[in-house]
Specification:
homodimer; alpha+beta
């Protein structure tokens, strides 16, 4: 496993031979079919996951059962919060699910934590990882507080089309609401408005992007 | 400065003598009168601030000029984001202002960064600090997405009364709106409703908590 880990972990060369051996010895490959929820809050501290194929979605769940997508992890991204027990101060719960058939390199939390406590290189890399996720959440907070729903929805549809490499998205209004942290009815109303404006064409379980330039103009407001 | 730093930095004993000397030699005491904005986004990377007296407010500013309070830093808390340049991945801007006359121990960003890169103890402590702030922002995100404004406002007024040790708050509707990331008109409307319910008494530039138990019952919903 040395070769793969060296490829995925930028701090590899800064580790001692013993720490390299500890990580390589503990790592294993795991596969999750699309739809699997692979992490549910702090109580299951599965370990670090390096995405080698597919896509993970990291999201929160409110007391009322409403979801909000925080960010997605693509190939080569590292899922830190599935190992939230490596830090005492992570006092929040996220869920992680596979959006596509996904393969990961898995590192057990306790092994990673031990290496991090000995190695400044590993510890600083972990800080950078957390700062990157923090930045995504701060961007989202700005969106939620300060952007209009139509702008956020346009940005979401375009991002989704890019991720999937398709202009016709097999997605329900419920699923969109779960990404955006709002209610299905709110999304249905806005999508119908988009359809009237010629921006999308709706059919059962499907949203087709009909006017990408128009959506981009709207989304540009959200990105400002 | 050795003695103070040893007292405030839990990782002090894990540092080499050279790193202790570097930090102690670079640290200085600074004072900020109430109202001072001591950090404005990423471009001014002032350094780490350990609060020794007073209170700092960390907040964001939208393109439209709307503020949102992320959290407060009290005595012994460390302000990390005033040294955001110590990590490349911190891609967001916050502002920091003194809410009271505040004194800090200041550590220059470059000195702290150099120590952090050599010391796993310092790097791991910095990770924990960031995880603690991340947790506060995640709590706020849940509030903003999932709690009603009346519940949030009740929780805010109670927190404010506790911080100030007073039931009569010298605070404008504008200032409350800036904490909560909303518009003044929205706060004025809700405060008038609170007054009708006998929860508060309003006068010019002042909100008095008239029924703490009632506010607590409302706020309990937001804390759930």
């Amino acid at each position: 496993m040395h070769k793969e880990l060296k490829d995925y972990l930028p701090f590899w060369d800064g580790l001692t031979a013993a720490d390299k051996a500890a990580l390589a010895g503990a790592a294993d490959e795991r596969e999750f079919p699309a739809g699997t929820v692979l992490h549910r809050g702090a109580e299951d501290c599965v370990g670090l996951m390096i995405v080698t194929k597919g896509r993970l979605r990291v999201y929160t769940l409110s007391d009322e059962g409403r979801e909000l997508t925080l960010y997605r992890l693509l190939e080569r991204d590292i899922c830190l919060f599935s190992a939230s027990c490596i830090m005492n101060s992570i006092q929040f719960d996220v869920l992680v699910s596979a959006e596509e058939d996904t393969a990961v390199l898995h590192l057990p939390a306790e092994t990673y934590k031990a290496v991090m406590q000995r190695s400044a290189a590993a510890a600083n890399y972990t800080s950078e990882l957390m700062a990157a996720r923090f930045s995504e959440v701060m961007w989202l907070m700005d969106q939620v507080m300060n952007k209009r729903l139509d702008e956020r929805l346009a940005a979401f549809l375009l991002e989704e089309a890019e991720l999937r490499g398709a202009k016709s998205l097999a997605i329900t209004h419920e699923q969109i609401a779960n990404h955006m942290g709002t209610q299905r009815e709110v999304i249905t109303r806005m999508l119908r408005h988009f359809q009237q404006e010629g921006l999308v064409v709706l059919s059962r379980g499907r949203v087709e992007l009909a006017n990408e330039a128009g959506l981009q103009a709207l989304a540009a407001e959200a990105r400002r």
